[in-house]
C-alpha cells in the first residue's frame, strides 16, 4: 500500500526495497522455514541419541543412517541401482532419515525455483526493453535505470507486492502487451499456482535424479509438513479454480468496460491482454493498467471477493469418509485450545470491525469528501490490505465536491490521504492478513441459524 509516489525514491533506495521484497516474499520465507526444519530434525536426533555429533561430520548433512543399522540387515545394492533407490529400500522402516533427505531436497528445489523464475523474468524484461524503444523511452523520461526497473518489477511481481518504480504503476505500459505477458507468469508462479508448479517440478526431478526423495514427497505430502506442497488432487483442482476465476473476471470486465474510458486508446489485442493482466492481478499482486476509481462498482465488488479469498482457494470435492477422518484428527489436536478458539472471531468479522474503526477515524472526510471517501473505496482499501494485494482506488482532487485550491493530485494510494489513526489501523490489517493462516479456523463457536 503506497502512501508516497514511487518516483521519489533514488536508485539506491529502490535496490534496498527490492532486497526487502525478495526476503519478505512467501516463497523465500517458506524456503528458510524448510532449512530450519531440517536443523530441527538434527537436534531431535541428537537428543534421542541417534547420532553422536553432527559437527564431527565433514559435511553439513547428517551421517548416513546405513551406518546405524546392523550389517546383517543391509543388502548390497545391485549394479546400476542408484544410492537413493537402494537407501529407500533398505531404510523403509527408518522414515525420519528419509524425511530428512526429502526436506533437504525440497528446500533446494524451492531455492532453484525461486532463482530460476526470477532470473528468467528479469532477462525477459531486459530483452523486451532492448527490442522495444517505446517502453525504453518511458524509463528515460522518468529517469529510471532499465536494470533496476527490471529487477525491481520482477521481484515485486513474484513476491506479490505490487510495487512498480513508476508513479502510475503499470498504466504507462498498458500498450506494451509483451511486457504484460512476461509479468503474468511471474504473478501466477509466485502465488496462486506455486503449489502446482512445485509438485510438477518435484515429479520431473524425481524421474531423473533424487528418485527416493521425490517419491517420498509425492506419496507423503502431509508428513513433509510444507504448507505449499499440496496433494496431487488439490493441485489439479487449484489450477482449474485459478483459471476459472480469471475467466469469470475476464468476461465480467470485458462486458462492462470494453468501450469505457478505462481502456480508451487500446486496440482489441491490447485490451484483451490488459484485461487478462488486470484479472490475474486481482488475486494477490495488485499491479494495474487502469484507474480503479473509474471502473464499474460491480467489478470492484468482484475484485474485493478475489482479494479476500486465500491464494490456494479451490473447488475441491472431498469424500465423506476422508472428510470425517480429517475432522476427527483436527478435533483431537484442538481440544486443549477449545476455550481460546471460542473467543476468536472469524476473519470476516475482524474485517468488519476494522472497516467500522476506519469509518470512525475518517468520519470528517466521509462527510466533506464523499466521492473520494466512499464506503466502497474504504472497503476496497481494507480488503486489499488484508489480502496483501495493493489495489487502490486512489485519490483525485477532481472528485471533491468542495474544491480545495491547495489540493494536488498525487499518484499514490487512497490511504495516503487518511489520518494517522486510519493508517495505523491499516498497518494492523496488513499484518493480520499476512498472518491469517494462523486464524483460519476462528469463529466456529458462532452458529448462524
UniProtKB/TrEMBL annotation:
Domain of life, per lineage? Eukaryota
Does this UniProt record's set of keywords contain Transmembrane helix? yes
What is the membrane topology listed in the Swiss-Prot or TrEMBL record? Multi-pass membrane protein
Membrane-crossing segments per the record: 12-36, 105-131, 143-166, 178-206, 226-254, 295-318, 339-358
Q: Does the keyword Magnesium apply?
A: no
> Which Pfam families does this UniProt record tie to the protein?
TrkH
Predominant localisation class = membrane
The record's subcellular location field reads: Membrane
Q: Which UniProt keywords apply?
A: Ion transport, Membrane, Transmembrane, Transmembrane helix, Transport
Family, per the entry? Belongs to the TrkH potassium transport family. HKT (TC 2.A.38.3) subfamily.
What's this protein's name?
Answer: Uncharacterized protein
| Species name | Rehmannia glutinosa
Amino acid at each position: 500500500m503506497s502512501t508516497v509516489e514511487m518516483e521519489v525514491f533514488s536508485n539506491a533506495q529502490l535496490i534496498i526495497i527490492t532486497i526487502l521484497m525478495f526476503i519478505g516474499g512467501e516463497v523465500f520465507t517458506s524456503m528458510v522455514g524448510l532449512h530450519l526444519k531440517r536443523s530441527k530434525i538434527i537436534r531431535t536426533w541428537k537428543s534421542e541419541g541417534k547420532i553422536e555429533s553432527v559437527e564431527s561430520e565433514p559435511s553439513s548433512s547428517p551421517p548416513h543412517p546405513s551406518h546405524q543399522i546392523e550389517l546383517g540387515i543391509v543388502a548390497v545394492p545391485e549394479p546400476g541401482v542408484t544410492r537413493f533407490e537402494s537407501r529407500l529400500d533398505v531404510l523403509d522402516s527408518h522414515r525420519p532419515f528419509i524425511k530428512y533427505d526429502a526436506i533437504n531436497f525440497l528446500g533446494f528445489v524451492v531455492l532453484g525455483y525461486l532463482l530460476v523464475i526470477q532470473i528468467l523474468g528479469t532477462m525477459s524484461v531486459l530483452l523486451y526493453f532492448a527490442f522495444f524503444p517505446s517502453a525504453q523511452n518511458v524509463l528515460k523520461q522518468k529517469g529510471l535505470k532499465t536494470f533496476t526497473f527490471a529487477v525491481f518489477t520482477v521481484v515485486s511481481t513474484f513476491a506479490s507486492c505490487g510495487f512498480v518504480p513508476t508513479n502510475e504503476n503499470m498504466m504507462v505500459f498498458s500498450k506494451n502487451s509483451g511486457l504484460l505477458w512476461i509479468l503474468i507468469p511471474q504473478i501466477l508462479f509466485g502465488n496462486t499456482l506455486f503449489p502446482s508448479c512445485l509438485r510438477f517440478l518435484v515429479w520431473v526431478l524425481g524421474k531423473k535424479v533424487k528418485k527416493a526423495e521425490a517419491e517420498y514427497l509425492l506419496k507423503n505430502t502431509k508428513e513433509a509438513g510444507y504448507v505449499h506442497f499440496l496433494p496431487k488432487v488439490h493441485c489439479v483442482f487449484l489450477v482449474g479454480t485459478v483459471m476459472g476465476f480469471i475467466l469469470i473476471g475476464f468476461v465480467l470486465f470485458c462486458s462492462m468496460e470494453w468501450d469505457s474510458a478505462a481502456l480508451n486508446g487500446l486496440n482489441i489485442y491490447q485490451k484483451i491482454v490488459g484485461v487478462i493482466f488486470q484479472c490475474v492481478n486481482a488475486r494477490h499482486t495488485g499491479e494495474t493498467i487502469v484507474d480503479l476509481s473509474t471502473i464499474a462498482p460491480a467489478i470492484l465488488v468482484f475484485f474485493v471477493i478475489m482479494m479476500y479469498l486465500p491464494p490456494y482457494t479451490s473447488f475441491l470435492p472431498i469424500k465423506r469418509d476422508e472428510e470425517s477422518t480429517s475432522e476427527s484428527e483436527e478435533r483431537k489436536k484442538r481440544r486443549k485450545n477449545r476455550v481460546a478458539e471460542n473467543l476468536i472471531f472469524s476473519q470476516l468479522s475482524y474485517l468488519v470491525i476494522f472497516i467500522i474503526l476506519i469509518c470512525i477515524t475518517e468520519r470528517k472526510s466521509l462527510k466533506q469528501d464523499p466521492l473520494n471517501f466512499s464506503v466502497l473505496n474504504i472497503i476496497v482499501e481494507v480488503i486489499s490490505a488484508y489480502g496483501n494485494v495493493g489495489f487502490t482506488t486512489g485519490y483525485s482532487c477532481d472528485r471533491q465536491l468542495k474544491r480545495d485550491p491547495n489540493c494536488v493530485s498525487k499518484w499514490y494510494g487512497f490511504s495516503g490521504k487518511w489520518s494517522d489513526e486510519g493508517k495505523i489501523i491499516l498497518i494492523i490489517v496488513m499484518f493480520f492478513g499476512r498472518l491469517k493462516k494462523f486464524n483460519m479456523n476462528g469463529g466456529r463457536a458462532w452458529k448462524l441459524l
